[in-house]
Design goal:
The protein has 414 residues and is α/β, with parallel strands linked by helices. Helices cover 44% and strands 12% of the residues. The protein is built from 19 helices and twelve strands.
Length: 414
């Protein structure tokens, strides 16, 4: 692939560029976010962690990796939603960062736009990464970077509420037993389950474990299996096992409902662990069950560390050293603890569980997780996701049956 081809942005990528805004970025170095003027001894890193300033453990790790590679690091942190736009614009101007850390669904957009090098180009070793996590950064049989960590969804449960309702959590193994547990909880005068079904990507994100757990595929969102998943959610609302508020719930407001202490279950993510420790009641976590038992595949969140295309290909060797340092076994344990992520390798996951046994169900959930752009969906995913959340909204609000809502969604995708 020649340089001209690599720099040619696709129509989809140009759309992202067109909506770029002036969101302020913070930098641990001085000057603008431009990579121009960086001499051979300075390498630029862009990340989506503005919450970490230059005194943080994360910023210090970047500097330490730079020192190990014999270079100085110029780091700039962007808001997640702004980082993609900045990366695409920088690529247009032949001014990309040396290392780019992005939300994993964005990788396919940047790869299709010709912004990223492959691991064949940059010689990154991804052999230790769990294949299901690496798949989120793959497209067209090529791999574009390596995950720095992952989060996903599981079911938090209130031990006291289940005890009062006579529910043994060990009995919850599939959809039938989960629904039976919700019925017992409701009969005992408590509330069943809360989740986020809002009409945004958050709603699709939360629906996917049930969608995939039914056996459905994103290439056919109107299948019988998909209808069964949406019918499950609709049944819960109709029977009062889930509140009507889920239609407007974000993952944050859903967590607030669970935090009240009245709900037996809440579908939420790894990022709530710190809050869960302060919640005021005993809780536990189980992976989302699949329809017929076992763990459902939940969508993976988390970032990929990538190496953008450079006019000076001689820079790749040092960039590869920086990425290898950031994602090394020695550094991942501390980094993923800081970011509240499950590590992408079994070796570090085992160390995390040894340090904190409460991470075991999250490691299990991550091992069963699946990238939203996996199955080589790439940039097709956003359109599918939008139609999926619209179908969920239609069905839960009662404006269409689950079958009709998903049939309309499938037609819109095509």
């Amino acid at each position: 692939m020649n340089r001209t081809t690599r720099r040619r942005l696709t129509a989809a990528a140009m759309t992202v560029v067109a909506v770029a805004t002036g969101t302020t970025a913070c930098s641990s170095g001085s000057g603008s976010t431009s990579t121009e003027g960086a001499d051979s001894g300075t390498y630029t890193i862009w990340d989506p962690y503005p919450q970490f300033d230059k005194s943080s453990a994360w910023a210090k790790l970047l500097d330490d990796c730079g020192t190990t590679a014999g270079v100085k690091i110029k780091r700039t942190a962007f808001d997640t939603s702004d980082l993609t736009n900045k990366a695409l614009l920088a690529a247009q101007q032949d001014n990309s960062a040396d290392v780019l850390i992005v939300d994993n669904p964005v990788v396919s957009t940047l790869a299709e736009a010709g912004v990223l090098t492959t691991t064949d180009d940059n010689k990154l070793d991804t052999s230790k990464v769990d294949p299901n996590l690496l798949a989120a950064g793959q497209a067209g049989a090529k791999t574009y970077g390596t995950p720095i960590g992952a989060n996903t969804l599981a079911l938090y449960y209130n031990k006291e509420v289940l005890k009062e309702a006579g529910v043994d959590i060990a009995s919850v193994k599939d959809w039938t037993s989960l629904t039976a547990a919700l019925a017992k909880v409701e009969k005992a005068g408590k509330k069943g389950i809360t989740f986020s079904a809002i009409g945004t990507e958050e709603g699709s994100f939360q629906f996917l474990p049930w969608f995939w757990g039914s056996g459905a595929q994103l290439t056919d969102i109107a299948s019988g299996e998909a209808v069964s998943a949406l019918s499950l959610w609709k049944e819960w609302l109709d029977k009062g096992y889930a509140p009507n508020s889920v239609i407007n719930n974000t993952q944050t407001t859903s967590w607030q409902e669970f935090s009240s202490g009245d709900y037996a279950f809440a579908e939420n993510g790894t990022w709530q662990l710190a809050g869960a420790e302060k919640i005021g009641f005993d809780y536990g976590v189980i992976p989302v069950p699949a329809a017929s038992g076992g763990n459902a595949a939940a969508p993976t969140g988390g970032e990929f560390v990538t190496i953008p295309v450079q006019g000076d290909t001689g820079r790749y060797t040092t960039s590869q050293k920086l990425v290898s340092c950031l994602t090394s076994t020695e550094n991942l344990l501390t980094t993923d603890t800081t970011l509240s992520y499950v590590a992408p390798t079994t070796e570090v996951q085992d160390k995390q569980v040894a340090t904190n046994a409460k991470l075991k169900p999250w490691v299990d959930a991550v091992k069963a997780a699946k990238g939203r752009t996996s199955d080589d969906l790439g940039t097709k995913y956003p359109k599918i996701s939008e139609q999926l959340w619209k179908a969920v909204q239609s069905a839960l609000s009662g404006s269409a049956s689950p079958k009709d809502a998903l049939s309309s969604a499938e037609s819109a995708v095509k």
